[in-house]
Every structure is written in structure tokens, then in C-alpha cells.
Write a structure and sequence with these properties.
binds zinc ion, four-stranded antiparallel beta sheet, about 375 residues, about 25% strand, six-stranded mixed beta sheet, alpha+beta, elongated
């Protein structure tokens, strides 16, 4: 039996693996698998379709009953272009804060879960604790989906899941939905001295972006759910590219945009309104010049909103474990909506502040890790009572 490791030691190991979403997470998964094996816990790997990554599912305690899932993603966002005060892949302690990429989002939670394994093992659990480690959360929550599909088949389905994203241990029972779109404008090339012979794809794209701003302003006036900050659905254009030279009327322009919707909002409203505007205000003129003119919007991915069901047992459990009496809602998306959709009541509660996630000098405080350890200890106590 290996000597117990502290959350800080485990976090130092976990952040040492560069698991930026574009890279493999297999070295981290190997480590977690070996660590669990060292404590007599076997795990099941759920590989990605290309085999470069894997999710992990492990169970501690009795089989055949629901149990509680503790879920975290192993990937993190890139450090490129960020100015760090210390190496982002070396855990560095300063003033009670632990700095590293992923320390807050969300290897801190995984470290606490792993550090708690000997304590979970030491208790006569009446219900199991399931450990879930996913990948590709930061690129559309895609990596947990094959694992969720197996909850219907050969993996036990937890009766509740705690997603340990950074909430400073507050209980979060709702988040917005994300829809990612790409709009492609096809115009017609012409010499820039004779622009009327062409269809300027960049000008059309600019009109569409302007319309998106108008649509989003209208929604901001109409919607108001004070649980969310901001309290309405937002639209944001993230990239745009087009054109080949200053003296050519551009044929091609495309832009990517993201909608973050309130859980009760109609997610298709904005692309529908944009398409209606294109059909009415832009395409007729474009088609007068060329039959090839087109404005196409495709979905690049979506993450469902999360809204815990009424009387959710996951929410009730987290509230009682944290001694809190109120829940919160957040504007960032997590895997909780997918678990909830698959019939596993979920809640979000984990160490660290989302304000530090994705930033240079990301950190989690030692106090937050301590609070999470106490939370997991209370969970184990509850499940063995
Ligand atoms: Zn995260």
C-alpha cells in the first residue's frame, strides 16, 4: 500500500502532465490508473475514437447500487500567448495559492478525489463512490459522451453526480447552453475598380455580424433571469477571415460565433432570425450578380444547458454536505447538462474560483483544496452511515 499522498502532492503531479485539449491525456490517465490500482481500485478506460485520449471510470465500494459519481475533466486550455510568472506546468506555491495551468480548472478537484481514495477505502461504504475522469471538456464537452453512452450498457449508473468544476464549493444547479456556429459567405470576385461586377463577401459578412449585434441587443432587453450574469442569452463573434488582396473584391468570407443561451430560451431563435435577415436583406441583391451567391450557417457543436430537476437528489446532497441553503447559477458550460440529460441527477460543486480559470497565473488556494477534502470526507461519512 503506497503512503497517502496529499492533495497538493497529487496536484503537483497532475499539472505536470501537459493535457492541453489538443494533446494526448494518456500519460495522466496512466498515472491515475496506477495510483488507483495501488489502492486496490480497478478502473475502466473509455478510449477516444482515435485512441489518443481516454476517459476513466472507477468504483470504490459495493457494486449493484447507484452510488455517487465524482466527475472531473483532465484537459485544460492552452497557455500560448499568456504571460505567466512561473512555469505553468510546475505547481508553484505563493501566499497560500497554488499556481499552474489546470490547478483551478480542474485538476484541483481531481487531486482532492484521488487524495481521498484511502479514506473512501477505509470506510464501510454502503453505496459506492464512482470516479469519472474525462477529456476534451474544453473543446465542446465531447470527451465524456462515449463514457455517458456506456452508463446505459456496461458501466454502473450513479444515482447522482457531483461535477467538481470551480465554484468555490458553492452549489450550482444551472448553467447556460452553448451553440457554436460557422457562417460562410460566398460572393463573386471582381477587379476592385469595378465592384458592381462582384459580390463582396466581406461586406456581406460585416452586415451579418451587425445584424447579430442587433439581434443580441433585442434579446438583452427582452430576457431577464437574474440568476445569471449577464441575465440574458449572449451572442459573440469569435473569428472572421476572408479576402485575398486589397484590389480584389473578395469571393469568400466566413466567421465563427457562439450563442450562450439561458436554459429556458429557444436555442434556434438566433440562427433562424439571422437566416431570415439574410434571405430578405442580402441574398436577393447578391443573386442578381451571381447564382452562386450563398450564405450558409452550420452548427459546429453544442453543449446542453444544465438545469437540475425539481427536488434533485444531487442538489440536496451537495447542499447538505456544504451546509449551504441556496444554490447558484453560472454562465459557463460544463458536463453536468450531459449527465442530467442521460438521466443522472447532477450538481456542480468544486474548489477554486472560475475567475482564475483559463487565465495566466491560474491558481487554486490551499484553503479551497482543504474545503473540498472536508466535503469529500463528509460524503464518505454519509455513504457509510
Ligand atoms: Zn473546467
Amino acid at each position: 500500500m503506497p503512503s497517502p499522498a496529499t492533495p497538493q502532492e497529487l496536484l503537483a503531479t497532475l499539472v505536470g502532465f501537459d493535457t492541453t485539449s489538443a494533446k494526448s491525456n494518456l500519460a495522466l490517465i496512466d498515472f491515475v490508473e496506477d495510483y488507483l490500482k495501488g489502492h486496490g481500485v480497478s478502473s475502466v478506460r473509455v478510449p477516444s475514437p482515435d485512441g489518443r485520449k481516454a476517459a476513466l471510470f472507477a468504483t470504490i465500494g459495493p457494486e449493484g447500487v447507484g452510488g455517487i459519481g465524482l466527475s472531473g475533466h483532465s484537459d485544460c486550455v492552452p497557455v500560448e500567448g499568456q504571460s505567466w510568472s512561473s512555469d505553468p506546468f510546475t505547481l508553484t506555491a505563493r501566499d497560500g495559492k497554488l499556481y499552474a495551468r489546470g490547478s483551478c480548472d480542474m485538476k484541483g478537484f481531481i487531486a482532492c478525489v484521488l487524495a481521498s481514495v484511502p479514506r473512501f477505502k477505509a470506510r464501510p461504504l454502503k453505496e459506492p463512490i464512482h470516479i469519472i475522469v474525462s477529456y476534451d471538456e474544453e473543446v465542446g464537452c465531447t470527451g465524456v459522451r462515449p463514457l455517458i453512452a456506456r452508463l446505459e450498457q456496461d458501466l454502473p449508473r450513479p444515482r447522482a453526480i457531483i461535477v467538481g468544476e470551480p465554484t468555490t464549493m458553492a452549489v450550482v444547479d444551472a448553467h447556460k447552453r452553448i451553440d457554436a456556429y460557422r457562417t460562410v459567405v460566398t460572393g463573386k470576385e471582381a477587379h476592385s475598380s469595378l465592384p458592381a461586377l462582384g459580390v463582396n463577401a466581406i461586406s456581406v459578412a460585416a452586415a451579418l455580424v451587425g445584424e447579430l449585434d442587433r439581434i443580441s441587443d433585442k434579446i438583452a432587453v427582452r430576457q431577464n433571469d437574474p440568476r445569471f450574469e449577464p441575465p440574458y442569452t449572449t451572442v459573440s463573434v469569435g473569428t472572421i477571415e476572408g479576402g485575398t488582396a486589397g484590389n480584389i473584391v473578395p469571393k469568400h468570407c466566413e466567421f465563427q460565433w457562439l450563442v450562450r443561451s439561458l436554459p429556458d430560451a429557444e436555442p434556434n431563435e438566433i440562427p433562424r432570425d439571422l437566416a431570415a435577415y439574410a434571405e430578405k436583406a442580402l441574398l436577393p441583391r447578391m443573386r442578381q450578380v451571381t447564382e452562386e451567391a450563398a450564405i450558409d450557417t452550420e452548427t459546429e457543436g453544442s453543449v446542453p444547458a444544465f438545469k437540475a430537476g425539481p427536488g434533485s437528489e444531487a442538489v440536496a446532497l451537495a447542499l447538505s454536505l456544504t451546509d449551504a441553503n441556496a444554490t447558484q447559477a453560472v454562465s459557463y458550460a460544463t458536463e453536468a447538462g450531459l449527465f442530467e440529460q442521460a438521466g443522472c441527477p447532477s450538481v456542480i460543486c468544486g474548489p477554486g474560483d472560475i475567475a482564475q480559470a483559463h487565465t495566466a497565473d491560474e491558481f487554486v488556494t490551499i484553503a479551497q483544496l482543504d474545503a473540498c477534502m472536508a466535503f469529500l470526507e463528509s460524503l464518505a461519512k454519509r455513504l457509510s452511515a
